[in-house]
Amino acid sequence: RLNLLTQCFAFGLFYLCFRLLALERFLFLAALSVLKSAGSTHDWVGPPNPLSNLRPIIYHIPDNETELEKRLRNLRQETEDWNHNFWAKQNITFSKEKEAFIISQLKAKGLTLRDEDGRRRSLSSEEMATFYKNFLDKNRVRHANYNKEWYRRNFTITLLMARVTLNSMWRTVTERQSSKKNGTPTS
Amino acid sequence: MYKTPCSRLSGFVGVSVKQKLARNVPRCNQIARSLIQLHRRDPSNWLTYQHFNFLKRQYVSKNTSELHQRAIPKQAPVLTIVDERDDSVERQVERVPTINPAATDAGPQAEDATHKPQDKLSILKSTAENAAAQNVSVSHMTGTPDEPPHVQVETEEERQARLDRQWKQLKVDRADLPDIYARLSKIKLTALVVTTAAAGFAMAPVPFDPVMFFVSSLGTGLASCAANSINQYFEVPFDSNMNRTKNRPLVRGQISPLHAVSFALACGVPGVALLTLAVNPLTGFLGALNIFLYTCCYTPLKRLSITNTWVGAVVGAIPPVMGWTAATGCLEPGALLLGGFLYSWQFPHFNALSWNLREDYSRGGYRMMSVTHPAMCKRVALRHSLGLIGLSTLAPVLDVTTWTFPIISLPINLYISYLAFRFYHKGDRSSARKLFFCSLWHLPMLLLLALTCKKYSRNQEGAALPPASLPLTFPAS
Q: ipTM score of the complex?
C-alpha cells in the first residue's frame, strides 16, 4: 500500500511540475507578448527547471512566420516537453529509489535514519555502488530507447533549422534584389 | 521544488492579453481561463514585488550589482506584501516572471485594453522606467525608514548565480563568442590533443620541418574542435543533468544547436582538408576517422555499453599516430607504439576520473565500468598502468628511443602503477583522485622524457646521439 501511495505521490509531483512548466512558460509568454513591441525578436531561455535540470525556451513567433518555421517551432516545443518529462521522471525515480535503498540498507544494519545528533546517516560510496549499478541495469532498455529518439529529434530539428535559415536568407536576398529593381522600399 | 505561483497571481489580468495569447498559445487557453477566474475572485491590486523585479531585470542596466538610487519621478500605489528581506521568497520570485503591472492599472477596463495597445505600451514604458526607482521606494516602504537604502553588495559568485536564474534572450553577443567557442570546443582538451600530436611529430625519425609541424598541429586542433563541438551538440540533455558539464554553452542556451553544428563544420572541414592536402592523405584520413570514432561511436556508446572506454582510448591514441604520419607519411611501428602509450594511459586516467562520478553517471544513464563493473574498472586501470612500463621498454626495441628511456621513465611509471595498485586495493574516493591527478602530469612527463631520449640515427647500432635542439639531418640510406 505504501508503494502505491508513493507512486501516486510521485505521479502527482511529476504532473504538477509539468503543469508548472506550462504555466511558467505561459506567464512568461504573456509578459513577452506585451514586451514584444518593445523590440524583442529573439527566443528567450530560462533558468534550469528544478526537476529536469533542462532550460525552458520561449520561442519568438514572428508576424510573418512561414509554414516551415511553424513546424520547426512546434517540433522544438514538443521535443522540449518530451525531454522535460523524461528527465523529470528519471530524476524523481532516482531520488525515490535511492532514498528507499538507503532506508532499507540502514534497516538491515539495524540503524535508524538519523543518528544521535539528528543528522542523516549516509552510506559509503561502495554501498551505494550496488544501487547505482542496479538502477542502470534496470533502466537499460528505457535509456537506449530514449537515446534513439533523442538523436532522431535532434537531427530533425537541426535540419529544419538549417532549411529555415537558408530560406530566410534566400528571401532576404530576393527581396533586396527586387527592391533594387523596383526602386521602392519593400514592406 | 516550486511553490505554486497561483497564489501570487491575483494581480494578473489575463484578459487583456488573452486575445493575443489565444492566437499564440492555443494550448494554454484552458490555463488562461482558469487564471482569469482566479483574478475575478480576488480583485485586490496585487502589485507584487516580482512584477517590478522582472521588469527591472530586463530594462535596468544589467551590470550593476547594487541597487542604485535613482530619481523617483512618481510613485504608483504599491502594496508590497512581500518582505524584501525574505530570501526564500526572493528566490521563488525570480523563478516565476509575471505579467507587468501596467495591465493591472486597467482594472475593470481590462476587456477594452486590447483595443488600446498604444496606451498599454506607454504605461508599460513609464512603469519600466520607474521600475528601478520603485524597487528603492518599495524598500523604503517595507524596511525601516531610518536605515540607509537597501543596497545589495553581491560577490561575483552570487551575481553569476543570480544572472543564471534569469530569463535571457537567445541572442549571441559578439563579444562572448570567443569564450563560447573555447568552451564549445573544449579548448583545454584540444590543447592536450594537439600536444600529443606534436609529440608524435617530434618523435618521428625525420628532419624536423617547422612548417609541416605547424600545419599538422593546426589541422589536428581544428579536427579536435569539430569533434568536441559535435559531442556537446549530441549530449545537451545529459550534460544538463550532470554537475560537471552543466555550464556548457549549449546547455545554457548561449548559442543554438545549428550554430554549434555550423561551428563544427567550419572547423572540421578546413581542418581535415588542411591535413589531407597540405600534409598527406593518410593524416587526413586518420583525422576524419578520429572525428567519426569520437562523434558517432564513442558518444552514442557511452549510453549503451561499457566498451565506450576502449573506443575512447583508441580515439585518444590516434593523434600521436597522426603526428608521426604527418612527419613521415607512413604508418610505422613507432607510430603505433606512441599510440599505444596514449591508449594505455587512458585507462588509469579515465577510470580514476569516473570513479568519483558514479552517482552522476548512474542518474544520467551512462554505462561506465566504474558503475556497472567496478572490479573490472580497478583491474583494467592497474593492468594498463603496468602496461606502460612494458611499452616504455619496447620503445628502444623499435628504435624510437634509446635505452636510456625505459630507465629514466621507470620512476614515474612505477609511481603511477603504485597509485593504480592502491586504487585497486582500496577503491575509495581519495585513491581514485590521487590516481587521476597523477595521470595528468604523468603523460606530459613521459612524452618529454621520450623526446629527450629520441634516437636520431636508426642505422647505427647502440650509438645514441645526445639530444640536440635541432636534429641533424643524416644522408638517406
A: 0.77
